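Action item from last meeting closed. Structure (320 res):
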């Protein structure tokens, strides 16, 4: 409540929370002593004793958000208000063993002892913290990263698929009360993937495998990943009509099945001209008025924002 309101007096907290004044006073004393609360001055007098006003210390608990890619690991430390306390990148850990990643996390905790939750993003399917599909990274295949880190660091941990985190982050940044349906499509260095949000809710599917669009059979003998890459595995969407056609077919498929408000692309992977080409081609497969808006966004920023939100939710849940 203090994070939402900014500050409050004991009387205000008692009234809003429906807790007796003596009980509130006891909690305030304990939280102030622990450093969880800050005093921010006295209220103006209304004829009696001026009441002390309190605010939550946003640096009392921190979130460490990390996303793992083949060649690098991005990390950011946030406080409870979502303010950045440290950010940076280091080598990729997916080709190393888990001990190397654990050493990096341990170093972050040593620098920021107030870290109270860990949020990991990975380029693979995740089922309740276990990485169930991550081609090319055998050391992490079927690895329960959530349980490992919770046992190793005694902190609450969330592990999320990269595209799920990105679509959650994009939606959260919109700060809207509309229950939108969104698709976040990324071609990526690990193959294509998508995050699906339907009526404001993340779609995971029966086995948490939703969004693995590389397997969608768009053509006879070719799935989506094969259609947008050449024989050497190089992405061809940006410069060949066959790639544009494949993406357009996928957009039309999403439109017919989910009817989303928008499909979001990574800004580094598309141009305005490419989006126009995809939109025009999609209209040849689907009634134009039912097609979604095509837009581009900062994938890394959305990804980290989603992980931040997931990590902050862990802190809030722990305080309930």
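Sequence:
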């Amino acid at each position: 409540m203090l994070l939402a309101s900014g500050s409050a007096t004991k009387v205000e907290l008692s009234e809003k929370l429906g807790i007796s004044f003596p009980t509130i006073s006891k909690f305030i004393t304990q939280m102030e002593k622990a450093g969880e609360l800050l005093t921010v001055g006295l209220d103006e007098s209304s004829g009696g004793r001026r009441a002390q006003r309190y605010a939550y210390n946003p640096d009392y608990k921190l979130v460490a958000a990390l996303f793992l890619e083949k060649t690098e690991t991005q990390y950011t430390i946030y406080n409870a208000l979502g303010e950045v306390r440290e950010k940076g990148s280091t080598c990729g850990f997916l080709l190393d063993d888990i001990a190397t990643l654990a050493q990096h996390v341990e170093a972050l905790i040593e620098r920021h002892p107030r870290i109270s939750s860990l949020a990991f993003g990975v380029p693979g399917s995740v089922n309740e913290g276990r990485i169930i599909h991550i081609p090319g990274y055998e050391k992490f295949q079927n690895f329960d990263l959530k349980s490992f880190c919770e046992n190793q660091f005694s902190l609450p941990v969330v592990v999320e698929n990269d595209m799920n985190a990105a679509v959650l982050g994009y939606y959260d940044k919109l700060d809207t009360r509309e229950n939108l349906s969104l698709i976040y499509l990324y071609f990526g260095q690990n193959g294509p993937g998508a995050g699906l949000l339907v009526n404001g809710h993340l779609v995971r599917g029966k086995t948490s495998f939703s969004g693995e669009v590389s397997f969608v059979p768009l053509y006879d003998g070719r799935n989506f990943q094969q259609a947008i890459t050449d024989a050497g595995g190089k992405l061809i969407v940006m410069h060949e009509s066959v790639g544009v056609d494949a993406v357009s077919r996928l957009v039309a498929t999403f439109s017919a099945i989910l009817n989303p408000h928008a499909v979001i692309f990574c800004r580094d992977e598309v141009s305005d001209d490419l989006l126009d080409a995809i939109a025009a081609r999609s209209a040849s497969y689907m009634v134009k008025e039912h097609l979604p808006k095509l837009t581009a966004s900062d994938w890394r920023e959305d990804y980290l924002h989603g992980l931040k939100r997931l990590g902050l939710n862990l802190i809030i849940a722990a305080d309930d």
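Note appended to the action item: The two ends are 11 Å apart (CA to CA).
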